[in-house]
Amino acid sequence: MAPQPQRLTVTRRAWPLARPFSTPHGARTVADVVVAELYDGNARGRGECVPLQRYGESVDSVIAALEAMKAAVFSGLNRDTLQDAMPPGAARNALDCAFWDIDAKRTYCSVADMAGLNADAPVVTSFTLAFDTPENMAEQAAANRARPIFTVKLGGDGDIERVRAVRQAAPASRLFVDVNESWTESQLAALMPMLVDLRVELIEQPLPADADDALARMEHPIPLCADESCRTIADLDRLGGKYEAINIKLDKVGGLTEALALAAEAKRRGLRIMAGGMIGTSLGIAPALLVAQHANIVDLDGPLHLAIDRGAGLRYTGSTINPADPNLWGGPG
Question: Are 175 and 150 in contact (CB under 8 A)?
């Protein structure tokens, strides 16, 4: 039985980026994160989240949601009861990961062992190229041309020129594109043959989530990956015939507990898995490495875009993520 009472503290921090990261909606210079920390007098557990504006979240709203859980945590809330106590989202992710971390320390057992997974194997991540002019994206790609995989951020006029510029700058790299719901059905149909010629291997969320029924009517010479169209297990039924893969992000699904369940069910249905994440510190990425054990594709390069990471952070050798330091997250007490 877990020691009682537990106390929850909530903190926020802005981590500066190594360079501005642009999307079609603007540029960021910092990564805003929120950390939930549980303490029971003996053990501590932490979880980090990045609020998702796409789902109406902000740093303030996530902090408020976590602060509202303090009484429940003090009264004995645990990882199992949390799943019904909070909705999917960044706030639940931070608290869920904190529960996994403190449970590992209480039981002197790693989270990987608790979940029945092997987290000792290194994984290779895609490296994200921020949305920019074709010339600037080619410069980003050339500076990182030794990396084996790129995710190319798209979402505006000139997208095919962006992909072509990246391909010319990094001819040996595998390419995925992330469209962020920004194309129409006709744009996708027109661009698909050109993307095939440019050897693009995956297209992530080409159409808005509420307009993706059109994908079932189209041929998919390049596999399509659902991001915004797949948040939880409840969304899987509507993906048939439209997508070949799903992107599982802990902040989106609401924690490692739901992410592992979603990965298992998606694999059972024959879907490929992408282990995705936001730009944040190694504390937020470490739990996603367990999802990566299920994944065909890994997109967990967030800490590589920071000017500085947490101490005992993940160690990247090029694009290879080495196993997490137990002192960072998820290690035995």
Answer: yes
Domain ranges of the chain: 7-109, 123-321
* Catalytic residue IDs: 153, 249
- The model's pLDDT over 99-135, given as tens digits with 9 standing for 90+, comes to 999 999 999 999 999 998 876 789 999 999 999 999 9
Q: Which residues of 259-296 are buried (b: 16+ CB within 10 A; e: fewer)?
A: bbebbeebeeeebbbbbbbbbbbbbbbbbbbbbbbbbe
The residues pairing with 174 across neighbouring beta strands, listed in sequence order, are: 149
- Residue 87, preceding bond cis, omega within 30 degrees? no
Mean pLDDT computed over every residue of the chain: 95
Q: State the pTM of this model.
A: 0.95
Amino acid present at 159:
D
CATH code, 7-109: 3.30.390.10
Check if CATH label 3.20.20.120 holds for domain 123-321: yes
